[in-house]
Amino acid sequence: MNTTSASPVEGLAPVTFARRILVWDAPVRVFHWLMVLCFVGAWISAESERWRMLHVTLGYTMAGLVVFRLLWGLVGTRHARFRNFVRGPKAVWRYLGSLLSGQPEQHTGHNPAGALAIVGLLGLATAVTFTGWATYNEVWAGWPEDLHEGAANAMLALAGLHVAGVIVASWTHRENLVGAMITGRKPGTPAEALRRAWHGVAALMIAAVLAFWWWQWQAPIGSAPVGDRSAAAARQPAHDDDD
Question: What is the maximal distance between C-alpha atoms in the chain?
Answer without folding.
Answer: 77
